[in-house]
């Protein structure tokens, strides 16, 4: 299966750099609506057969123009929602709270899935729910599936599940609003990331960039 993970369009909380993860969440800014409207053209070369989005308003608004253009139903699945910030909800996404949030998320991707965000979920919780939706899509027989999701969730899941994406790569590569990560594979055989925000993914351990650019969540 070809899997397109799409970050939602810009929200007011993105502008204010807030850890805004709870449902239903905010809508889109004017820019976010324009970003969503541009998705059908941006993905014109993809033969998308199924389209998923979680329960948050911003993801469904982002998916709507693509659904209309392709004649698809948006399949709403809570498992694709953003990593819950728990006790840090609505705190600044830059500074101490934001760094703790992202370092925890990337620790999950590195294998420490028992770690839990204060008042929030564990890595096991997150990966179990996200994996379940990806498995459902794979079992449907659709050859190309798009899932509109969230920045931290996409980066963490890709780092945990794609064999050629490691934590330093995901940490150093923010995913801007409506940025897309394209993967191929299956739950049984694993996943390979083909492109990240339009750029070819350098395999882990083969000279890919490193660093801890941890922002770009929700």
UniProtKB/TrEMBL annotation:
<dbReference type="InterPro" id="IPR013078">
    <property type="entry name" value="His_Pase_superF_clade-1"/>
</dbReference>
<dbReference type="InterPro" id="IPR050275">
    <property type="entry name" value="PGM_Phosphatase"/>
</dbReference>
<protein>
    <submittedName>
        <fullName>Histidine phosphatase family protein</fullName>
    </submittedName>
</protein>
<dbReference type="InterPro" id="IPR001345">
    <property type="entry name" value="PG/BPGM_mutase_AS"/>
</dbReference>
<dbReference type="Pfam" id="PF00300">
    <property type="entry name" value="His_Phos_1"/>
</dbReference>
<dbReference type="InterPro" id="IPR029033">
    <property type="entry name" value="His_PPase_superfam"/>
</dbReference>
